[in-house]
Amino acid sequence: MRLRLFIFFCLLTGLATLTNAQQTITDPPRTCETMEQDSINKIRYPKRRTLDDFEDAIRQRMKEIQAREKASGRTQSAILSIPIVVHIVHNGEAIGSGTNLSKAQVQSQIDVLNEDFRRKPGTPGFNNNPVGADIEIEFCLSPVDQHGVALSEPGIHRYNGNKSSWTREEIEGSLKSSTIWNPNLFYNIWTVKFGGTSSNLLGYAQFPDQSGLKGLNETGGSASTDGVVIQYSSFGSTDKGSFPVMQAPYNKGRTLSHETGHWLGLRHIWGDGNCADDFVSDTPPAASESRGCPVGRFSCGATNMVENYMDYTNDVCMNIFTIGQKTRIRAVMDLSPRRKSLLAANLCSPIVADVPTPNFTADKQLVLLGGDVNFTDLSTNFPTAWSWTFEGGNPSASIERNPKIKYTVPGVYNVTLSATNSLGTSPTLVKSNYITVSEEGLCGSANNFLNSYTPSTLPLSDYGIYTGYLTGHNSLKSKAISEIFANTLGYEYISGMDITFSRVYTTREDATVTVVVWNARGPQRAPGSVIERKVVLLKQIQDDIANNRATTIVLDRESPVFGQPFHVGIELKYDGDSLAIQSSLDGESTNATSWIQNDAGVWHPYAIDFGANIAMNIEAIVGMNPSVQVSASKQLIYPGEEVILNGRGASIFVWNTDDGAVQNYTGSQLSIRPTATTVVTTNGSGLELCNKIVNTTIYVREDVTGIEENAIANSVSLHPNPGQGNLNITIENNFHGNVSLSLISIVGNEVSKTITINKAEEKLTYTVDTASLQAGIYFVKVKLAGQTIVKKWFKN
User: Fold this and answer.
1) CA of 651: how far to CAs of 203, 557, 666, 667, in Å?
2) Residue 270 in contact with residue 276, Cβ under 8 Å?
3) To which H or E segment does residue 178 belong?
4) Which residues of 415-443 are buried (b: 16+ CB within 10 A; e: fewer)?
């Protein structure tokens, strides 16, 4: 028998995550790398809520439910009914053969699901465990489709995909979005034959989404992928009929019970770690998943609950959901918008002909000035027409089902909706003060200072036996420092930042520091993945400190923060340079917003590591629209070196330099060869932009006389120029003493070792063998009499 895989594909934040592990028929482990894949999806879909966000919300709601039940003395809850649509994806086979499953096989699976979730006596779903629970959720095959039309096969949608098998990528990329029924009304389940790179999969699911509804048309949004996918040969139960396509040991229907547990917010019973937490108090800890049916297995100081549906034991072994798991599921049904809306639709009950009951939601209720809000209709009884009124909105009214509305005036506004079907028009639903439009526009900035603060450079010695700066280089060898930005207004992009440095020391003209933007998806909102880096010359920071101004940094490219919190800071290198960022005095932060990374690479707030409630003087430049971004191939050059600048973010770019050498040049790229420090101004247009103008300073090395004509420069000559073989460097002047010679490539690397020669005569000629050098432009650097002369040499 071939190897098979059991996969749970789940994404807490909303989009499914894929996990896998091998197993044999005789000893089948159910393995799921949920946590690992969740971290991947944080990067792929950063708008989705994090695992910690979700757990915090569930934990609070579980406490509320438990307190409510204790106060009332009730242990039972109202029975919840969830309508199912099974999308049977086939390849043209007759009904009941191959992947085109029979109605009886589908019904057998729904029967098992109800037996397991209701702990039904007399069935394999019953148990006598003292913490075993009736979840009090029932599932039905929906009697109608999403338009309210009665189905000849309730809850079944047969879809000829014209493919013999499907990969996960094909399912997520096209199949789901083209077949899904409104997930606000239906629990969507797909049965498929996995193939290609996914040929060993058994199934995967999607975690509930706590964030707002996004609408079915959102590309990559969780609504278009919400549901469970099951291998066709593991859907149903051979206990309830003869279904030849089903394969043991996954032929009792527990694959869907497990995946539905995930779809309702349950996590693996061993907490995806060694004796880790599954956030349910009455499931004993376990060192790992259990395989087969090892009843009595002991680990983590407890007898493991191998019969739990959320373990990886065989189908015939599973029969327990616990009271704690029930509370968690009920909390999810209260919290997750789409899960909750399944109940409001009430499709499992006999259809009662009536006018609609209007309802709706929005993707945001706090909107920036000039921002858009996407509204989603949730009205029951299948309306065919809608009438919206948007106080303060543009347009102020709509007859679309799911309109998009712009708000351009600050204020708090009502939204109203009435819906119509063939039986009439509903009463008008008014949601008062539903939309708040802030005074902040689509483009803005953010900092963490109080209205009044004391600009400070705090010595680390104030916080222990250390030296250096609290917010800079120090004897602890801190690796990085950052400032967190809550981004409560949901800005999409960061285009740059203003950082006020208070100290800088370097002896090198080419010394740099790296400014970094991270997302805030690390532990406890610590810096997570890097969004963007930008290298900044300490020379620029020195100039800015001398002129009592912040250092303005424009990022090289469009940098999305996806409306989520983020960090801005610097990485600290210990190579002889030092610097510090200005901060507030201790106690003057709005919320202890500064973070520090220790020499082991672990991030902590300053308030934890040093007891310092501070904010650093970092201002993030943010917006809902992109901005002009400019990158330069070099920031510090020898006189006459080529610098290439690229513009991004706009569709039209106009370039100028402060020396007048470039005037109103149009194009996305500019090439210049400055001989003195030059400011390049880039003006972008053609799109709706936040920041249209960027100034980029190209520094020319100060210790270089350069290519410009003067007496010392004229005394140095190169021949032949251009040349191919030996290069003769001749110095003819009255200087006597040591002369330093070096040959440098166009990218600033030494290609010939620097030598020092004593010049005792008026004329000195030195020959360099250049046979091994590639054709191109090189610079000869000559140091004498306290000056540096750079001459350009061409090798052909």
Assistant:
1) 45, 14, 11, 9
2) yes
3) helix 176-179
4) bbbbbbbeeeebeebebeebbebbebbbb
Token pair, residue 663, equals: 């005037």
Q: Which residues are catalytic?
A: 259
b/e burial code for range 82-118 (CB count within 10 A of at least 16 → b): bbbbbbbbbeeeeeeeebbbbbebbbbbbbbbbbbbb
Report residue 627 as tokens: 């901005």
**74: which residues sit within 8 A by CB, 6+ positions away?**
none
Among 705, 558, 557, which residue's Cα sits nearest to residue 632?
557
pLDDT for residue 576? 87
Q: How many C-beta atoms surround the C-beta of residue 461 within 10 A?
A: 14
| Least confident stretch, 3-17, 128-142, 204-218, 587-601 | 3-17
How do residues 65-121 score in pLDDT, each as one tens digit?
777 766 665 556 689 999 999 999 999 999 999 999 999 999 999 999 999 999 999
- Candidates 403, 361, 589; CA nearest to 485 is 589
Residue 402 in contact with residue 415, Cβ under 8 Å?
Answer: no
- Cβ atoms of 367 and 435 within 8 Å: the answer is yes
Q: What is the pTM of this model?
A: 0.62
pLDDT single digits (tens) 539-583:
999 999 999 999 999 999 889 998 889 999 999 999 889 999 999
**DSSP 8-state class, residue 184:** T
Side-chain-facing half-sphere of 203: CA atoms under 13 Å: 26
CA distance 444 to 442: 7
Q: 398 with 239: CB under 8 angstroms?
A: no
Q: What is the mean pLDDT of residues 724-741?
A: 88
Residue found by looking up tokens 């001459």 in the block:
791
- Report residue 449: phi and psi, to 5°: -90, 150
Helix 103-118 to helix 254-263 angle (10° resolution) is: 60
User: What is the β-pairing status of strands 787-795 and 302-303?
Assistant: unpaired
Give pLDDT tens digits for 476-527: 999 999 999 999 888 989 999 999 999 999 888 899 999 999 999 888 889 9
Q: Which stretches of 193-333 are assigned E, i.e. beta strand?
A: 203-205, 228-231, 298-299, 302-303
Question: Long-range contact list for 666-674, CB < 8 A, 24+ apart?
Answer: 669/644, 669/645, 670/644, 670/645, 671/642, 671/643, 671/644, 671/645, 672/642, 672/643, 672/645, 672/698, 673/640, 673/641, 673/642, 673/643, 674/637, 674/639, 674/640, 674/643, 674/698, 674/700
Given a contact cutoff of 8 angstroms between Cβ atoms, the answer to whether 614 and 588 are in contact is yes
